[in-house]
Amino acid sequence: MHISFIVQASMLEIYNETIRDLLTPGRSNSFEMTSNKQYTIKHDPHGNTTVSELTIIDVFGIADVTNLLEKASQSR
Predict the structure, then answer these.
(1) CB 64: neighbour CB atoms within 10 A?
(2) pTM
(3) Backbone angles phi, psi at 66, to 5 degrees
(4) Whether pLDDT at 27 is above 60
């Protein structure tokens, strides 16, 4: 039996009730940068929570995850 899967990541920050996508391409680390996107938090009956319009990136290993964590940290 062969099991295959896809792992994806997105990162957000909620500050003063405002959602910020920390992986938006071209994002600076300035808090004053605002986005025109309206993010929506949704909960499904299975207990899953999603946020609309977030940047989603495929990850293939620990190095990809580490790079995304660094990028998100710089965007904060």
Answers:
(1) 14
(2) 0.73
(3) -60, -45
(4) no
